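REQUEST FORM: STRUCTURE PREDICTION
Request ID: SP-0412
Submitted by: Lab K.M.
Chain count: 1
Length (residues): 287
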Amino acid sequence: MKLRILRIAILTVALLATSCSSNSIPHFNALAKLGSLGKLGQGAPKPAEAPTPRLVMFVGVDISGSFMNGRYFDDSIQFLARYIYGHLNGIGNMEVPHSLFVGSIGGYKKDEPKTLYPIESFQNRSVAEIEARLHEIFPKGRVNHFTDFNAFFTQVGDMIDQKKLLLKPISIVLMTDGDPDMGEGTASASTGTDKSAKFRHLSVSPLEGLSRNITVRVLYTDAVTGKNWLDEMPRKRVKVWTQDAVVMTEWKDPRTYLPDTPFEKQERFFSWVRNNVDFQPRLRRVD
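STATUS: Completed
RESULT:
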């Protein structure tokens, strides 16, 4: 009799344990699933944030008569509109700038400061709108007497200091024939036997020490002028890259800039820019 009662007790306990299991309590199962989902959410990796842009770009457009009235000025504005648009929007792996300033190289008198238009003047615009804006800033009827590169370099150095852009990589792009005309000293040098002497009057000293990575890109020169920029301009930490005008005009060759193709898909153009404009030259000291 006692053995029978014991068996009934054991069976009752077993039945109670089965009825109280987690599988028989739907609320318990739902909470358990929510808990496991919460743990999965905590462990899921967050999407990587885009790196903060560091590049600082300055663009100088030569508005002297020799360049503005020459055969390459219109081409340079057309290219510049696409170059700015590509960089601002990071298309074709073109580096998005932290800051952009666009101004003129030249003046009615020596050491004349010029307006530097900020990045906001070109953001949220199409290529055509940027090109129209550049024509507004640099109208062909407004010609300056001097091509004062030194005044432009001084103004760039001041802007870097004022905006606290020190130690950032800096690219200075000059749309110019590259021929300095900064007053009587360079004018007399250009008419003398040593025509390269005027390039030794060029001074990037206001830029030295502002960054470990400063590149001056002189576009739309001729071969001799480009070589003088490379060989004669005194510098210590500033890198120089030049590109001849006859090469620059090839950006719109139909084999490079494909007709009837959206700008975002102009891969050949972007590759051309990387190899011929945004090329990174080696550092070379010239005393």
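NOTES: The radius of gyration is 32 Å.
Reviewed by: T.R.
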